[in-house]
């Protein structure tokens, strides 16, 4: 629990939310500014700022998959995007780990922009990352 965290307040029931799922470790609720109908946030009850603090949170996976299935089926979505931002530069606004589960429906335009390039120096890039593990 972090005193100044809006998502901790939602878990505690001090700030209202539209609950979709809850278990001992995980809470899921509707995003207040949905990208599409059914946009749901899945969060751990334990406060960590972002994915970098979540190495021990294996229990996130099953609820995340269950909620994704439910979000897809509830209104007949064609697909589901899972988004997860870490750090201000990466678009994170609420610093309590959360997974966005966003359904996409027939006729929707996927609005995700990445500037792609061709992979170069794959050997050394992969090695640099591996060395950090
Ligand atoms: P981020 O940009 O950090 O990945 O996403 C934060 C998300 O939290 C946003 O989609 C925003 O709409 C949602 N959000 C922020 N404050 C509240 C709130 O008080 N209630 C709910 N339900 N969603 C919130
Ligand atoms: Zn929190």
UniProtKB/TrEMBL annotation:
Active site positions: 98
Alphabetized InterPro entries for the sequence: HINT (IPR039384), Histidine_triad_CS (IPR019808), Histidine_triad_HIT (IPR001310), HIT-like (IPR011146), HIT-like_sf (IPR036265)
Biological process annotations from GO: nucleotide metabolic process
Entry protein name: Histidine triad (HIT) family protein
Signal peptide boundaries: none
Motif (Histidine triad motif): 96-100
Gene3D superfamilies in UniProt: HIT-like
Organism: Candidatus Nanohalobium constans
Domain HIT intervals: 6-111
Single GO molecular function: catalytic activity
Pfam families noted in UniProt: HIT
PANTHER family found in the cross-reference section: ADENOSINE 5'-MONOPHOSPHORAMIDASE HNT1, HIT FAMILY PROTEIN 1
